[in-house]
Structure formats: C-alpha cells, structure tokens
Specification:
single chain; 159 residues; mainly alpha
Amino acid sequence: MISEAIKLLKTKKLMLQGLAFFAFFMVIYTMIDGFNLSYSAMIQQYGLYLVVVNILLNLTMASLSALLLNLSTAMATLKGKESTGSNLSFVSVLFGILTYGCTPCVIAFFASVGIAFSVIALPLAGLPYKLISLLLIIIGILWTLREIRHGQCKVSYSN
C-alpha cells in the first residue's frame, strides 16, 4: 500500500498541493518567528547561527508538514478515510503559537484563563519548543505511514 501512496504523491495534483502546503506552512512558521523575535534582533542577541537554525527548521517543518498532509490525502484516496496523524501538523503549529509565538497574545490568552508566565524567558528564542513541534510532525508522519501500511480498506458489507 505504501508503494501506491508514493505513486499518488508523484502525481501533478499532489505535487501542486504539496507545494501549496509548503508555502502555507513556511508563511506560518516565519510569522511565528517574527512575532517572537525578529531575525535581526535574534542575530544581535544570539548570533547568526540561531537564525540559520531557525530558518532550516522552518524549511524542514514546512516540508514535513506538506508531506504529512499529502500522505493523508493519498490515504484518503486509497482507503476512503483520513489519517488521524495528519492532525499533528496543525497541533504543532498551535503548539508553536502558544509557546514561542506572539508573546503579548499568548500572555493575554493564558492570563484570561488564569495562567500567567513570561514566554520571552524561553531559551534560545523558543528553539526547544520548535524542536518539540518538529517531533510532533515526525510522529504524525510515522503514524500516517503506519495507518497506510497496516490500516484496513473501507469495505461495505451487504447482507
């Protein structure tokens, strides 16, 4: 079943869809970085290496998120159902926004529900939380591949 999914990933439709997902996630991840700490401020505070690492992580996460959603689309085409693992790419975006995203927004949001903390105190401009987001995406891909490999096809039973 994996080979069929890979064939579907090579179709023009899914390649264009993957490109659109990649662009969408790159915009989101770049915006989250900018809301947290601009790249120029990050260079001044931590050095160029952290900016390079963040941009490389953004590229990796956007690529893997696009792959995850395309795998989910391929699974839906092959089996007639979506993968539950595909939700983890959106969870990682939400996680990013709530942990190292726009500091005033996050503090106001959590303060409204009774949780107060300072997001700006996160180490390396929130890099550990970005790594956790990457881990969530990888888990989503592995989960989706497992569902493609071991899941059951939609079968209609008639009496």
